[in-house]
Design a protein that fits this description.
Belongs to the multicopper oxidase family. GO terms for molecular function: copper ion binding; ferroxidase activity. The chain is α+β, with helices and mostly antiparallel strands. The chain has helices spanning about 30-35, 75-80, 295-300, 405-410, 420-425, 430-440, 475-500, 505-525; strands at about 40-45, 55-60, 65-70, 90-100, 100-105, 125-130, 135-140, 150, 155-160, 165-170, 175, 180-190, 195-205, 220-225, 230, 260-270, 275-280, 315, 320-330, 335-340, 345-350, 375, 375-380, 385-390, 395-400, 410-415. The protein has four domains: about 40-245, Immunoglobulin-like, CATH 2.60.40; about 260-440, Cupredoxins -  blue copper proteins (Immunoglobulin-like, Sandwich); about 470-500; about 505-530. It contains eight helices and 26 strands. About 35% of the residues are buried.
Length: about 525
């Protein structure tokens, strides 16, 4: 959602607010009628990994909403410590349905137990279809990590919406949905009610380092025509494939403008100088500022245009700039990137961004009539995507990987959009915003650390940094120690070879001394001497 002139309603801790402290509140106001937006969205916490623990929900109209997600048995505080190891997939896939503001119950004849027994999950979830009707299914991936492949046996799907952008109908047999993406599809019910049909939501296991034996990555629920009928499950598809979203055509035409600024962001993961694993854009990991960036933008006066005032990984953008974000994936897995406050046009993709072959790494095609617009984009391993947007929404906006574990270890930047226009036109910042910051001891003005300066960032967390693999002081000391140890070892070998070995009498003498010392210790700690 855009949150025009109300960037503080966006909910990103450190960028648009300080977060809501215990026993406090904050009213999020979304002026839907005046926003000019429609489509499928979802609300979720943007503090720590809270949405992985369940603080999430779709925002929907009266059609069926299909919620995909991953389920963990531990909370995010425990899981974060296991980041990037064999345990990184969720413990289970998750699918459930909603209609008219209510989660649909379990399948008839089943009796699940537990606190969520009133909701149908996975094999107990079912969509009630009536013959001949056409349904709009809004599919939302709310997972913390997992992407899904989604399809319905015995039914055709037509994509009509992508991340809030209406598109011309596009038939599809298999839908790939990465984290935070949304799709609307039309599905026409069969006229035959003799069978119910399986709905499949299979995890994209290519994103996992390993697939644990305990994980069933394939979740199956059903469309129900008659409760007494059996369910037809056709099993697996021949092959998985990702949606070619650049082939989708928005209903409302927006021509591609010419870019005036380019920000290149190459990302990777590495072990840092403190031994932890972090994500990096251009060799730098992101840390949340103490002062929310939106408050820095509004209180720094003329210094609000100085990037260093916002801390590392901050980009100040001029009003009505046309920006290309070139996201380059140097990692071995797929990653979903989400932008706040805007939609981007996907104006280019590269299969291998390091290649000189124009078929693998083609130049940007300028003058595109109506490229796809969305807010969440998947970038596969070794590939790149060029994302273009107009800086027409002043405020402070997050750009980050939506795999929660990757965001928590720094795969993010923040865009400071049109500071001068924000200072001129923003007003009525809610008092609750300031109160919540003060309750946590956080500043509400000045730079990222709370000072009226563009350079004084005392107290702001910086780093960790990439390991220095060159000849630094500690490395030289370690090398010197290794060399000395090797020299002593070689001298010992030479001494032994030249007759420096000890005699058998000397060996016997040393053994007797060790036995005597051992007996003496036994008498001391045993209090009484042992009797033979």
């Amino acid at each position: 959602m855009f949150f025009n002139s109300t960037s503080w309603m966006d909910g990103a801790v450190g960028v648009s607010e300080c977060g809501i402290p215990t026993a406090k509140k904050f009213d999020y106001v979304v002026p839907i009628n005046s926003s000019g937006q429609w489509g499928t969205y979802w609300v979720h916490s943007h503090a720590s990994g809270q949405y992985v623990d369940g603080l999430r929900a779709p925002v929907y109209d009266e059609e069926f909403t299909i919620v995909l997600g991953d389920w963990y048995h531990q909370e995010h505080t425990v899981l974060l410590k296991e980041f990037i190891n064999v345990a990184n997939p969720g413990d289970s896939g998750l699918i459930y349905f909603a209609q008219r503001g209510t989660y649909l119950g379990p399948k008839a004849g089943t009796n699940p137990t537990g606190p969520t027994s009133a909701v149908g999950f996975n094999e107990n979830a079912t969509l009630p279809f009536e013959p001949g009707k056409t349904y709009r299914l809004r599919i939302v991936n709310t997972a913390g990590f997992s992407a899904f492949f989604f399809w319905i046996d015995g039914h055709d799907m037509r994509i009509i919406e992508v991340d809030g952008t209406d598109v011309e109908e596009s038939p599809i047999d298999l839908l790939s949905v990465t984290v935070a993406q949304r799709y609307s599809v039309l599905v026409t019910a069969r006229n035959d009610t003799s069978s119910n049909w399986a709905i499949h939501a299979n995890m994209d296991t290519d994103m996992f380092d390993t697939v644990p034996d305990t994980l069933n990555p394939n979740v199956t629920s059903s469309i129900t025509y008659a409760s007494s009928a059996s369910t037809t499950d056709l099993g697996f598809v021949d092959a998985y494939h990702d949606v070619n979203d650049t082939g989708l055509v928005p209903v409302i035409v927006v021509a591609q403008p010419a870019a005036t600024k380019t920000i290149s962001l190459e990302f990777e993961f590495d072990t840092m100088d403190d031994g932890t694993n972090h994500a990096l854009f251009n060799g730098v990991t992101y840390n949340s500022p103490l002062t929310p960036a939106i408050l820095s933008e509004l209180t720094l006066g003329p210094n609000a245009t100085v990037e260093s005032a916002y801390g590392p990984q901050s980009f100040v953008l001029n009003h009505m700039d046309v920006v290309d974000i070139v996201v380059k994936n140097a990692d071995t897995g797929k990653h979903p990137f989400h932008i706040h406050g805007h939609k981007v046009q996907i104006v280019g993709r590269s299969i291998d961004y390091t290649s000189d072959d124009s078929t693998l790494n083609p130049p940007i095609e300028e003058g595109q009539v109506n490229p796809i617009r969305r807010d969440t984009i998947q970038v596969p391993a070794g590939q790149s995507a060029t994302l273009r947007f107009v800086v027409d929404n002043p405020g402070a906006w997050f750009f980050h990987c939506h795999i929660e574990w990757h965001l928590q270890v720094g795969l993010a930047v923040q865009f400071i959009a049109a500071p001068e226009q924000a200072q001129q036109h923003f007003s009525q910042v809610p008092q609750e915003l300031f109160d919540n910051c003060k309750a946590q001891g956080l500043p509400t003005s000045g730079n990222a650390a709370g000072f009226a300066s563009t350079t004084d960032l005392r107290g702001l967390k910086l780093g960790p940094y990439l390991q220095n693999l060159g000849w630094h002081q500690r490395g030289i000391g370690a090398m010197a120690g290794c060399v000395l140890t090797a020299v002593f070892g070689m001298l010992t070998v030479v001494w032994y070879a030249l007759g420096g070995a000890i005699s058998e009498e000397e060996i016997e003498h040393e053994v007797r001394e060790k036995i005597a010392r051992k007996e003496k210790r036994g008498k001391l700690w045993g209090l009484l001497p042992k009797k033979n």
